[in-house]
């Protein structure tokens, strides 16, 4: 409980940072933060 996951969600041009926290065994809270731009992912798992 109390673990957090912070992930970028979006496409290659714009991502919004999303924070998900586990509040209890079956309850989560989600917080959407500002928009960001990240260094493009390269290689097999990167953007096409």
What structural keywords apply?
0% helix; 48 residues; 56% strand; 3-stranded antiparallel beta sheet; elongated; mainly beta; 3 strands
What does the secondary structure layout of this molecule look like, with pairings?
Elements: E1 4-10, E2 15-24, E3 27-36
Antiparallel strand pairs: 1-2, 2-3
Instruction: Please state the overall shape, judged from the principal axes of the Cα atoms.
Output: elongated
C-alpha Rg, in Å? 13 Å
Overall residue-averaged pLDDT value: 87
The profile of the biggest β sheet is: 3 strands, antiparallel
Task: Note poorly predicted spans.
Answer: none
Distance linking N and C termini: 36 Å
- Label the structural class: mainly beta
What is the H-and-E element order? EEE
Percent in helix:
under 10%
The side-by-side strand order for the widest beta sheet comes to 1-2-3
Protein name: Protein-L-isoaspartate(D-aspartate) O-methyltransferase (PCMT)
Pfam family, one: PCMT
Organism: Hymenobacter psychrophilus
InterPro entries: SAM-dependent_MTases_sf
Write a compact overview of the structure shown.
This protein has 48 residues and is an all-beta fold.
Characterization of this structure:
The structure is a single chain. It is built from no helices and 3 strands. Helices cover 0% and strands 56% of the residues. The chain is mostly beta strands and 48 residues long. A 3-stranded antiparallel sheet has the order 1-2-3, with no helix packed on it. It has a domain at 4-36. The mean pLDDT is 87.
